[in-house]
Design brief:
Blueprint: H1 6-30, H2 40-74, H3 78-106, H4 112-147, H5 150-162
Helix pairs in contact: 1-2, 1-4, 2-3, 3-4
């Protein structure tokens, strides 16, 4: 999709990068045989995902909640903002459960039982975040293009760059 505002284009760029990483992570998680512990190669992807989760769930969500959702509500898209905020909260809960396991995985400290627990949470997280990103691409980003005029877009895009 082509988006009109710098804000929606930047969010779309981050969404695409997140989807690519989630795909690699899912393949890595599913590539470990049932009942086995991950190999050394898993630690690199676990570290990358842990870093991305803290950015996606931290900075990205906070930015949307502080800068985008109030503008959507003011532009008549409050139901969409409320729905996405609920999803942010569910994703944060799953991310909080996943992060210690990712950090252990990034240090190569997951045995087979811990990996099995991480796999369940990781697949849930992947499913929730991928679905959320697709929803934002289909509904949020076009709404951003609709509610932000050029001046507001410049302000919001600058705020995002500084966050």
């Amino acid at each position: 999709m082509d988006f009109r505002t710098a804000t929606s284009r930047k969010l779309d760029e981050e969404h695409r990068a997140s989807l690519a990483l989630l795909g690699r992570f899912e393949r890595s998680v599913l590539g470990v045989a049932s009942g086995a512990a991950p190999d050394e190669g898993f630690s690199a992807i676990a570290k990358e995902v842990a870093h991305a989760v803290s950015g996606e769930v931290g900075r990205h969500f906070r930015f949307e909640e502080e800068q985008i959702f109030p503008r959507l509500a003011g532009g008549g898209e409050g139901d969409l903002a409320d729905l996405l905020l609920e999803e942010h909260q569910r994703i944060r809960t799953t991310a909080a459960e996943l992060m210690p396991l990712l950090l252990a995985g990034s240090a190569g400290r997951l045995d087979a039982a811990q990996f099995a627990a991480m796999k369940r949470v990781a697949l849930e997280f992947i499913e929730r975040l991928e679905s959320h990103i697709h929803k934002e691409t289909a509904a949020l980003l076009p709404a951003v293009d609709h509610v932000l005029d050029e001046t507001a877009d410049q302000e919001v895009a600058l705020a995002y760059a500084e966050s």
